[in-house]
Structure formats: C-alpha cells, structure tokens
C-alpha cells in the first residue's frame, strides 16, 4: 500500500522524518508550491525565490534517486493554492493508504495538518522533526524543573548532551562561554573575506522570472540573489565560512559597517532553516576547525552557542508557548509600524542602512535586527503584531518558530521577560560604538536632547520614563534607573515631551 509523504518548503532534508522508511517502489513524495504560503505575509522577493528554487532542486535530487515526486507548481492551473487543498487533491488522485508528514515550523501549518485526516479519510502520522537536537518533550520537562528560563543553562545542558566542545564533563578551555572576548568594534581597514555567491542556474533563473512577474510589488530586490539553493551549494558555503570568516566571527559578531552587510557572519540560517544543512554538521565543522588550530576558541564557542544554544532554545520555546505566546503586549505598545520600515526612507542613517541591506539581500545580521530595527521598535512602542509581521516577511531565513521568540521576546520585550531577562534598549551611544553609521547621519549622536539630537537618545530616556512602573524593579535595569533618578524633573519632562513629539511625527 502506498504512503503519501509530504515535504514542505522548509523541510528539504533527505533525512527528514517523513521520508524515513520510504519505499521507492510504492510511495509518493508530495511537494506543493502554494499561493497561500507565498502570501500569508508579504515575503521579500528573495525569500520566495529561495524557497521555490530550493524546493525544485530538492525534488530533482530525490527523483534522481528513482523516487516518484508529485511536484505541484505555483502556476499549475489545477493548483488550489493551499496545503489542505493540494493534499486532498493528491489523495483523490493517488489513493494512498496513509499520509506521513514532519512537524512543521509554524503553528498555523500544524493546525492545517490536523485537518488532513478528516478531509482525506486516511490516517495521518505527523512525525517529530528530529533535525532539531532538542526535543520538545525534553524541553518541557527541563522548563518544569526551573523557576526562570535562561538560555545559558539550556546551552550548557546541550553541550553536555551532545559533547560539543567538551573534555569529559568539563567545557573545553575551562569556560562555558567566551563572550567577554567577543563583541569588539571593527578596527579601521579590517575587511572580511567576501561570502561565496552562487550564480543562479537555469532552474533558479526560471523561478526568479516567475517571482519578478508574480510578486513584482513585494518588498525587496531580486538582483543580488545568491543564496545556496541545494545541499551541495550549502556545504560549499559552509566550508567557505569556516575557512575564511569563522576565525574572526567572535571578535566582530556585534560590529556593523556601512556597505558591509555580512562582515564575519556565517550566512547559514537560510540553509539551516530550510533543511539544506543540519545543525550538528555545522557545529562539528566549527569544532573541527578549532581542533585543527584553524580558528580560536572564542570564535568557535561563540558560533556554536548561536546554533546549539540560541537556535535550539527559541525553537523549543516557540513550541512550548505557541499559540498564545504572540498575544502578550507587556509594554502596551500601540504605535503602527512606520512606513519607513518598508521604504527605508528615514533621516536615521542606522535604520536606513539596516533596512537598505534587508531590501537588497533579504538579510541583516543579528545586531542590525536586534539593536537597530528591533531597538527602534522597542523604544517607539510599535505594535507587536505589526513588527512581527515585518520580520517574518523581510528575511529569507524567517519562519515563525524562530522569528517570533526573537522579535516578540528578545527585541521588543512583549513577553515581559520570558525570553530575555531585560529589554535590549539602547541609546545612540551603543550604535555609535558598534558601527560607522553615525558619521553619515543627519542627527548628532553626541547630542542627547533638543535640535539635532539623535532620536535613539531621546527615545531611550523617554522609553525608560514612560515604562518606569513596569521596568524599574527589574534588577538588570537597576543601573539605567539609577541614572534616571539623578535626572531633574524638568529634564525628565522635556524627554517625555520630545519623545512624544518625535513619535507623533512618525504618524
Ligand atoms: P550568524 O550570526 O553567523 O550565526 C550563526 C547561526 O546561529 C545562525 O545562522 C542561526 O542559525 C543561529 N542563530 C544566531 N542567533 C540566533 C537567534 N537569536 N535565534 C536563532 N538562531 C540564531 N534567525 C532566523 O534564522 N530566522 C529569523 O526569522 C530570525 N529573526 C530574527 C528577528 C530578530 C528581531 C532578531 C533579533 C533575530 C532574529 N534571528 C532570526 C536571529 C539571527 O539574527 C539570525 O539567525 C542571523 O542573523 C542569521 O544570519 P547568519 O546565518 O549569518 O548568522
Ligand atoms: C515560506 C514558504 C513559501 C513562500 N512558499 C512555500 C510553498 O510554496 N510551499 C511550501 O511547501 N512551503 C512554502 N513556504 C514554507 C512554508 O510556509 C513553511 O513550511 C511553513 O512556514 C512552516 O514552517
Ligand atoms: Fe542612528 Fe542616531 Fe547614529 Fe543617526 S546618530 S545613525 S540615528 S544612532
């Protein structure tokens, strides 16, 4: 009896649990390009192109193994446009005895999967996604044993469980975390080796033409499309990072530079999140580079922490707290998303650069996302749902399991401290220290208030003042609130007035 095996656009892994035990003589793999998936948020053009091109490459590779793949193209006239519609249509056509799927990356897709059994009249097995290292059930137990959730302790347990950077039961180098050696500002003249770029092949070119025509009005440019779209390309990109940028990854992880969107970052999130790379093989490659003396420990530990720690942590947290997680709004943020998040037209050079990089590449690195666009959304009190939709739309690596905790929890503190122990609020001084953006800005980062002042300076203090009742008791906010307590009443009132005036000007 044949089994219908589903592979979604972010499940492009040959070792996917839905493909486990596949019988090429009988089973059929179903892959669906769906209008609903391309429009549920207004995705960046490159994100759509990446997923469709990678899906088509994956289908070709699986077919080359002699497996039957039913591949539904977006412009197929019979395409119903949804996972539910296409699974039902395939069941009518192929009459499988059962359906096997892998746990998806978004709650709404899980809900759709739960309806397949009734709609198709065959049993549906939704298997765990074991491409992630942390299991959802284990995480729930881990959480139940703790008063407070903190990534650092989760990360240590992940190191113990996997053995990455461990010498017996002790962390390599005697420390779990070498962050104090990281996060330097970029010295003048230091350049990162450019990341490897993949020239679109015929399959990708076909998809780029489709996206250019069908999604012409979407955010973002297609011209720079150079993402790996197959496992072979993703492995090549990983090797390139390990050999050329990993050694300085730790030192300059937080640095930002105009015209240098990638610096020493790995650019592996797209390949990881759509399944072209496995997190274990990336951690292994980084650890091997350290053992071979090719990269220092602070860089390798810092990099492995992002993947084994943060990435696994946010995914486990998302599934523990979904779907209610998105509904909190701890700071009662109610301002609509300013139009410049889409146009990039703003006098704030840091925002203009971060949004411009995003538009050009469907990419911005972590500090641009957290401390520029995220920090602004936090300080300005942007409505959680609007800024979350923006992050989910504009980055090629964005799927709700990873976007939501990072935005709702880490960037805008809408969860009141589940994800981060304090809001990542910063004035212009931080951006100035970590970037060269301020030199080319219409505002003056050294001016704190009044004409010419950097908006991040005004908003930082007005944010602390406006949210004093919610934040002042947080022990990790003690220092800023001590500084605020030394401020005269007149100056406090002035920050409040100027903060509100600036924000009203955004509307
Ligand atoms: P590097 O800096 O080279 O890091 C290596 C890898 O570590 C990344 O590829 C990623 O897999 C992992 N990683 C690092 N930080 C995180 C993190 N905080 N959460 C999860 N994984 C992490 N990442 C996404 O993959 N998709 C998203 O939709 C996404 N949205 C974000 C939204 C906001 C507001 C913020 C602050 C961060 C977001 N991140 C997201 C995390 C991070 O910014 C990206 O993973 C990273 O920029 C990807 O680029 P890279 O591969 O060059 O990463
Ligand atoms: C994001 C996306 C897009 C743009 N298009 C498709 C598609 O046509 N077919 C598909 O299977 N998946 C697509 N995806 C990825 C899905 O939205 C993804 O599986 C869910 O977001 C769950 O993580
Ligand atoms: Fe951004 Fe302020 Fe610097 Fe301008 S001066 S780039 S607004 S931090």
Please explain how this structure is put together.
The protein is mainly alpha-helical and 507 residues long. 49% of the residues lie in helices and 5% in strands. The protein has helices at residues 35-39, 45-64, 83-94, 107-114, 116-120, 136-144, 151-162, 202-214, 231-244, 246-249, 269-274, 279-291, 297-321, 340-343, 349-361, 366-380, 384-394, 400-411, 428-434, 455-466, 468-471, 478-485, 489-506; strands at 3-6, 28-32, 68-72, 98-102, 124-127, 166-167, 170-171. A five-stranded parallel beta sheet has the order 3-2-1-4-5, with helices on both faces. A two-stranded antiparallel sheet has the order 6-7. The longest helix has 25 residues, at 297-321. The protein is globular, with a radius of gyration of 24 Å. Residues 265-269, 272-273, 306-307, 310-311, 314, 365-366, 369-370, 374, 391, 395, 397-398, 402-403, 406-407, 410-411 line the site of flavin-adenine dinucleotide.
């Amino acid at each position: 009896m044949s089994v219908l095996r589903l592979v979604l656009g972010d499940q492009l892994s040959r070792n996917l649990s839905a493909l486990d035990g596949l019988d090429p003589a009988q089973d059929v793999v179903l892959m669906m390009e769906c209008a609903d998936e391309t429009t549920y948020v207004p995705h960046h053009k490159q994100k759509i192109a990446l997923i469709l091109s990678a899906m088509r490459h994956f289908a070709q590779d699986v077919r080359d193994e002699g497996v039957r793949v039913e591949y539904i193209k977006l412009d197929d006239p019979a395409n119903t446009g949804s996972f539910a519609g296409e699974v039902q249509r395939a069941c009518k056509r192929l009459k499988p005895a059962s359906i096997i799927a892998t746990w998806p990356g978004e709650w709404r897709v899980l809900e759709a999967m739960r309806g397949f059994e009734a709609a198709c009249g065959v049993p549906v097995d939704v298997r765990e996604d074991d491409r992630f290292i942390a299991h959802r059930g284990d995480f729930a137990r881990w959480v139940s044993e703790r008063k407070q959730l903190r990534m650092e302790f989760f990360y240590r347990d992940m190191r113990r469980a996997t053995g990455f950077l461990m010498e017996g039961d002790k962390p390599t180098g005697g420390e779990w975390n070498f962050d104090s050696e990281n996060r330097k500002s970029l010295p003048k003249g230091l350049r990162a080796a450019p990341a490897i770029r993949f020239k679109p092949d015929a399959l990708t070119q076909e998809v780029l033409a489709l996206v250019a025509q069908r999604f012409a009005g979407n955010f973002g440019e297609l011209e720079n499309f150079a993402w790996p779209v197959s496992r072979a390309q993703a492995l090549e990109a990983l090797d390139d990072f390990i050999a050329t940028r990993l050694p300085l990854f730790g030192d300059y992880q937080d640095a930002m530079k105009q015209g240098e969107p990638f610096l020493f970052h790995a650019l592996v999130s797209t390949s990881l999140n759509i399944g072209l790379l496995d997190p274990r093989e990336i951690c292994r490659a980084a650890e091997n580079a350290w053992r071979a003396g090719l990269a220092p420990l602070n860089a390798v530990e810092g990099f492995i922490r992002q993947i084994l720690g943060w990435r696994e942590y946010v995914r486990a947290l998302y599934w523990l707290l979904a779907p209610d997680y998105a509904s909190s709004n701890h700071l009662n943020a109610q301002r609509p998303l300013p139009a410049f998040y889409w146009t990039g037209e703003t006098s704030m050079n840091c925002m203009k650069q971060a949004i411009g990089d995003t538009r050009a590449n469907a990419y911005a690195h972590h500090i641009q996302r957290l401390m520029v666009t995220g920090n602004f959304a936090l300080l300005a009190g942007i409505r959680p749902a609007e800024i979350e939709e923006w992050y989910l739309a504009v980055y090629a690596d964005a799927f709700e399991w990873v976007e939501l905790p990072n935005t709702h929890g880490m960037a805008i503190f809408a969860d009141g401290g589940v994800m981060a122990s304090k809001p990542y609020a910063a004035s212009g001084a931080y951006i100035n220290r970590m970037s060269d953006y301020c030199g080319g800005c219409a505002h003056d980062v050294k001016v704190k208030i009044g004409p010419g002042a950097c908006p991040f300076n005004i908003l930082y203090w007005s944010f602390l003042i406006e949210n004093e009742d919610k934040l002042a008791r947080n022990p990790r906010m003690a220092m800023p609130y001590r500084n605020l307590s030394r401020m005269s009443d007149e100056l406090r009132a002035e920050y409040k007035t100027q903060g509100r005036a600036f924000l009203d000007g955004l509307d």
